[in-house]
Amino acid sequence: MTQPPVPGTAAAGAGAQLDWFTQARFGLFVHFGLYSVAARHEWVMTREQIPVADYERYAQVFDPDRFDAPALVRAAQEAGMGYVVLTTKHHDGFALWDTRESDYSTQTTVGRDLVAELVEAARAAGLRVGLYHSLIDWHHPDFTIDYHHPQRDAADARELNAGKDMARYRAYLHAQVRELLTGYGQIDYLFFDFTYAEDVDGWRGKYPQDWDADGLLALVRELQPGIVVNDRLGIPADLVTPEQYQPDAPMTAADGTPQVWEGCQTLNGSWGYDRDNTAFKTPDLLVRMLVDTVSKDGNLLLNVGPDGRGALSPRDAATLTAIGGWMDLHHRAVIGAGASDVPAPPATVVTQRPGRLYVHLLAWPFGHLHLHLSGLADDVLHAQLLHDASEIRTSRTDPSQAAWNTTPGGQPPGTLTLHLPTTRPDVLVPVVEIFLKSEDGGATTPRT
Ligand code: GLC
User: Most CB atoms within 10 A, among 29, 69, 205, 273?
Assistant: First the structure.
C-alpha cells in the first residue's frame, strides 16, 4: 500500500493540511465565466483567435441571473462531494470577484462577487472551499504572446511582445492572488493553472519564473498557512493533477515517492459550457472512474460548466443526482478510503479503510468471485453487499477450496471465494463490503 506524504513534511509543503483532502476523495469543479456565454469551450478566445476588443462584447451581455451558489453547493453535497472549486479567473482574464486590480469583472459588469457567493454557500454547507486561478491571462496587456495566445498569428505579434512587460503582469497576478486569499476568510485549496515550460515554434513558453512561482507559493502559504496548493505553478507543491485521464497506478514522483494526487475530469470533454458537445460520460462511467481513482489513492475533481446564465443544465444536474444516489448507499467505500494491497480480481477495483475492504464490481460475474487475500483470509468476519447489507456467503468455512461438480476448485490457499447472486443489484456499481476482525486488516496497512 502506498501512503501519501505526511502533511507538514517537505513533500506536502510547509503547514499544508492534507488530511481533509485525502479523506474527501470527491469534489466539484465549477468552470464559469464569459466563455460560458459563447458556449463553445472555455478556450474559445484562443481557438478562434478572438481579439480582446471583440471578446469584451461577452462582458457587456454576461448576466449570470441563474447563478445560484447555494444550489450548486447543494448539488455537490448531494453527490457526496466534500469540496467545491470555482474558477476565479480563467485564461480569458475575466474576474468573478470584486477585484481592485481591474474593472474586467462581474463586480463591474453586474455588481456581483460570485466568488464571495460561492465561498459563503460552501462554508455554510460545511464543504471545503477551493479556488481555481489562471496564471495565464489573454486580456492583460502585459501578458506576452505565445503559442497558446489568441494573437499568436497576428502579423505584428513579435513586435507587440516587445512592448509587453511580464514583470507588470506578475505584480498584477500576485496582487489578485493576495486579494483572493485575504478577502474571503479561510480558503482550503488553491488550484493554479498552468505552466508550459517549453518553447514551441520559436515562441517561448511560460516558465515558473514567469510567475515568480517560488515567491507566489510563499505568498500563498504566508496568507493561508493551512492551504492545499496544486502543482501547476510548475514547481512541486502539495499534490499532482493528472487531467482527463485515469492513472493506471497510484502516482509517484520520478524517484518513486508516493504523491498525493487529484484527477480532474469533465462531463463531456469541455470544462466551460459547450452547448453542442454531447460526448457525455454516463453516471455509471463516472462512478467507475471515481472508485478507480480512490483504489489508486487519488481524488476525483469532477467538473460542471454552468450555462451562460449560471444554471446547471438539466442533464448535468441529473448526472450529479444519479452519482449522489450511488454515493448515498456507498460513501464509506469512497470517503476516507484508499488503495488496498489486496489484488483486484478481473473487472473489479478494491478500496479499503481500517477494518474493511470494498470490492467494486465493474462487471457482474456469474456466481463466484475469488479474492486472493493470503494471510488476510483468516481475518474475514463477514461479507455483504454494501447497498442493502445482504450477506454474501463465502468460502471462509471451506479453506480447502476442493472442487466438486457444482463448486469451483483450484484456488490457492488464502483465497476467499464470494458467492454472488445471479441477478446483478440495480446500482451503478455493486460493492461487496468485507468486514475484517482486526482494525489493521492483517496484511494490509490501515488508512486513517
Ligand atoms: C487545462 C485547461 C483549462 C482547464 C483546466 C482544468 O489546463 O487549460 O481550460 O480549466 O485544464 O484543469
Answer: 273
pLDDT of residue 397: 59
Report the separation in Å between the CA atom of 77 and the middle of ligand 1, taken as the mean of its atom positions. Answer: 23
Which is it for strands 83-89 and 128-134: parallel, antiparallel or unpaired? parallel
What pLDDT is attached to residue 401? 63
Whether residue 292 is found in the same domain as residue 352: no
Give the ligand 1 atom nearest the CA of 264. Answer: 12
Burial of 83 (C-beta count, 10 Å sphere; 0-12/13-18/19+): buried
pLDDT value of residue 441:
54
Which of 282, 300, 333 terminates a domain? The answer is: 333
CA distances from 319 to 28, 284, 303, 332, 421 (A): 13, 9, 11, 20, 28
CATH number of the CATH domain containing 348? 2.60.40.1180
Q: Whose CA is nearest to atom 5 of ligand 1?
A: 193
Cα–Cα distance measured from residue 181 to residue 213, given in angstroms and rounded to the nearest whole number? 16
**What is the SS3 string spanning 17-35?**
CCHHHHHHCEEEEECCCCH
The residue from 272, 303, 333 where one domain ends is 333
Q: What is the pTM of this model?
A: 0.94
d(CA 231, CA 236): 5
Q: Is 118 left (phi over 0), alpha (psi -120 to 50) or beta?
A: alpha
DSSP string, 388-418: TTEE-EEGGG-TT---BTTB---PPTTEEEE
CA–CA dist 146, 157 (Å, integer)? 9
Ligand 1, pocket residues at CB < 6 Å: 31, 42-43, 193-194, 243, 264, 271
Instruction: Please identify every stretch of the chain with a pLDDT value under 70, giving residue numbers as ranges.
Output: 1-16, 397-401, 440-448
The boundaries of the domain holding residue 421 are: 340-436
